[in-house]
Design goal:
With about 100 residues, the chain is mainly beta. The chain has a domain of about 40 residues. Helix content is about 10%, strand content about 30%. The longest helix is centred in the N-terminal third of the chain and has 10 residues. It is elongated, with a radius of gyration of 33 Å.
């Protein structure tokens, strides 16, 4: 069992904070002693199951899609094209 402390508004019962240490809950209550209270709460940890995963780069039987193409005026154009290399000079600042 694991324990934590809840800080509550005294009149409404609204939860203000959850604290892992009792001293933190007490300090919050000391800020407004007429409005806040704290109480210990517990939760049960359920059964933990360890699972391992295996990674396959591609699922068996899966076929990749062909590259995308566009038809323009009866002509088939590949979507990913490379631009021609520029003929301009590289800027080199003077030092």
């Amino acid at each position: 069992m694991f324990e934590y402390w809840e800080v509550l508004h005294h009149r409404t019962g609204k939860v203000i904070a959850h604290c892992g240490c009792e001293t933190d809950a007490r300090n919050l209550c000391e800020m407004k002693p007429l409005e806040r209270i704290y109480r210990k709460a517990r939760f049960l940890q359920d059964q933990v199951i360890n699972v391992t995963a295996s990674v396959d780069p591609q699922l068996p039987g899966q076929i990749g899609l062909p590259p995308a193409t566009i038809r323009v005026g009866g002509q088939v154009i590949a979507v990913q094209q490379s631009l021609p290399q520029g003929e301009t000079e590289v800027f080199k600042p003077k030092q």
